[in-house]
């Protein structure tokens, strides 16, 4: 489909069919399908002109359609993110959030588009203390919706297409009228496209679309609905929302530079773990060697303990990130890893003094009755010009905002109410989230991108993707299908569940002797079926040939296509 045809399709305000289409049963594994140009969509693929790997198959097809219509990776990624709000609901919603890492090949920079909304002005710590805590669902747990503005910001900074063009595939899905809210969401998205069309300039059109949502009719409809139903969101919260564009945080590992969003996500914990692992030679051990698994788990325990203690919105808190990633602090923390014995203590460090351990009396961490996450999907795109996008979209689809068709998430539950803790809830503050896309550079060019769903386990699985590719020489397809593990040795990010000290969840695909050896090392091993709380997706780019390999875990129903 040409760009002109895309634009014409979206601007025709068609009435969706009145009969609901029966929901198709989801398969155990990703099913091959076909894009408009005859490219097969399965769970892995290779090509030189472009590649997409994400959750829902139709979302992958949306991205491929945009690439084939002349869009770049950023245009295609936004098309994927918009479509995922339908195909992957309720794991992700357009009233939710999405941190995005973009490598812009023209400017040769990586930017972090931090699509995370803040707590409304009425969401005070005192308010939630009186209610007995922050709810895990419902209208009061909604942060300011951020995904729409993050998409528009990405298009404005590095895209080439208009919103109307990239939303066209999503509108075709919505126009099938599978659920009543699809009709409402289609109307809202078309109104944004109409607002955009009133400007001749592309960037001004994108701003007008954002204004329609955040400072115009949609914001006021969300305000009225929220007031009528006991919510905390108000029009002023949407009007003052800003999608921040930040420099990513980075660390070197085995000659690669790994980039993550900042400490408003858990992303830097991966960097801390990689710096600790840089002191060990994993390659001779092999990926299923118990000692290789052991040191990875122990490094993750230390990194996540620091995450729980210090990470928060850096606009509100002084996060000691430079020290946490420093060589001296890393060296001090590495001495706590016993290669012969698993730790069964939560051991944050003390970056204020550079000490390996924080005095327990100084910790601000408490625990509550939280639980696991049930949200999040994935999105990776690369094109022939060298642009790369890694995004991790999320949102629980917790509550539908009236007749807007916009589902709002419940991300405020990632805050706590502990006085003195950096991640305690405050009006205007962003919660510290688990969402954490990854781009890896070699010789200043992107060579790997990773996106993983699975709450607190996201960076644990990302670590395994990177060690699989870098240390153990696996392909993307081998990495996403290999057995996985994750430690439960952290404070949960969803209602502050207490750490399961020493617990190691190990895929049943590992041999029994691996489990026995890890138990001998002191891990409390729990055998579980794959995918072990994650849905990994990986892109690998060969800078010399331009070959792009894309793969997503088929058991987790990830889809991929390339051409």
TrEMBL record:
Protein name: Gamma-glutamyltransferase family protein
Pfam families attached to this UniProt entry: G_glu_transpept
Highest taxon above the source species: Bacteria
Signal sequence coordinates: 1-22
InterPro entries membership: GGT-like_enzyme (IPR052896), GGT_lsub (IPR043138), GGT_ssub_C (IPR043137), Ntn_hydrolases_N (IPR029055)
Alphabetically ordered keywords of this record: Signal
Region (Disordered): 21-48, 336-362
Keyword 4Fe-4S included in the entry's annotation: no
Keyword Glycosyltransferase among UniProt keywords: no
Basic and acidic residues: bias regions: 336-349
């Amino acid at each position: 489909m040409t760009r002109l045809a895309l634009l014409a399709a979206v601007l025709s305000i068609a009435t969706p069919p009145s009969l609901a289409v029966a929901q198709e049963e989801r398969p155990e594994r990703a099913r091959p399908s076909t894009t408009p140009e005859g490219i097969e969509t399965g769970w892995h693929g290779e090509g030189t002109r472009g590649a997409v790997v994400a959750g829902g198959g139709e979302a992958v097809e949306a991205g491929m359609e945009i690439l084939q219509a002349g869009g770049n990776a950023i245009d295609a990624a936004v098309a994927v993110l918009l479509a995922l709000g339908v195909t992957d609901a309720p794991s992700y919603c357009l009233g939710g959030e999405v941190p995005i890492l973009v490598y812009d090949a023209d400017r040769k920079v990586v930017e972090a588009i931090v699509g995370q909304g803040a707590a409304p002005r009425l969401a005070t710590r005192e308010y939630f203390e009186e209610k007995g805590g922050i709810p895990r669902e419902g209208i009061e747990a909604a942060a300011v919706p951020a995904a729409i503005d993050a998409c528009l910001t990405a298009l404005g900074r590095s895209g080439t297409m208009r919103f109307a063009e990239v939303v066209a595939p999503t509108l075709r899905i919505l126009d099938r009228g599978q659920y009543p809210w699809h009709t409402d969401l289609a109307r809202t998205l078309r109104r944004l496209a109409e607002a955009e069309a009133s400007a001749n300039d592309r960037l001004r059109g994108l701003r007008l679309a954002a204004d329609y949502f955040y400072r115009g009719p949609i914001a006021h409809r969300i305000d009225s609905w929220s007031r009528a139903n006991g919510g905390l969101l108000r029009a002023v919260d949407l009007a003052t929302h800003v999608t921040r564009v930040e420099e990513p945080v980075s660390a070197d590992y085995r000659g690669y530079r790994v980039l993550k969003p900042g400490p408003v996500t858990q992303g830097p914990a991966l960097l801390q773990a990689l710096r600790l692992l840089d002191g060990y030679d994993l390659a001779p051990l092999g990926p299923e060697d118990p000692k290789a698994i052991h040191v990875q788990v122990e490094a993750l325990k230390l990194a996540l303990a620091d995450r729980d203690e210090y990470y928060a919105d850096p606009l509100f808190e002084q996060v000691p990130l430079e020290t946490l990633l420093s060589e001296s602090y890393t060296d001090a923390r590495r001495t706590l890893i016993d290669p012969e014995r698993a730790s069964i203590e939560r051991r944050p460090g003390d970056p204020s003094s550079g000490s390996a351990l924080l005095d327990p009396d100084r910790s601000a961490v408490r625990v509550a009755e939280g639980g696991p996450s049930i949200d999040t999907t994935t999105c990776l795109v690369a094109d022939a010009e060298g642009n790369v996008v890694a995004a991790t979209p999320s949102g629980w689809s917790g509550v539908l905002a009236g007749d807007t068709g916009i589902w709002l998430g419940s991300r405020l539950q990632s805050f706590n109410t502990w006085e003195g803790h950096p991640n305690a809830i405050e009006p205007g503050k962003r919660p510290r989230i688990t969402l954490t896309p990854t781009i890896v550079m070699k010789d200043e060019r992107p060579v790997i991108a990773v996106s993983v769903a699975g709450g607190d386990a996201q960076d644990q699985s990302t670590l395994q993707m990177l060690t699989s590719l870098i240390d153990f020489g696996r392909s993307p397809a081998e990495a996403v299908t290999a057995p996985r593990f994750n430690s439960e040795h952290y404070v949960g990010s969803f209602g502050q569940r207490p750490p399961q000290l020493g617990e190691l969840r190990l895929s049943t695909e590992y041999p029994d002797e691996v489990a026995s050896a890890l138990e001998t090392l002191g891990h409390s091993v729990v055998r579980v079926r794959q995918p072990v709380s994650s849905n990994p997706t990986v892109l690998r780019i060969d800078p010399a040939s331009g070959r792009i390999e894309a793969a997503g875990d088929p058991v987790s129903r990830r889809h991929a296509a390339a051409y």
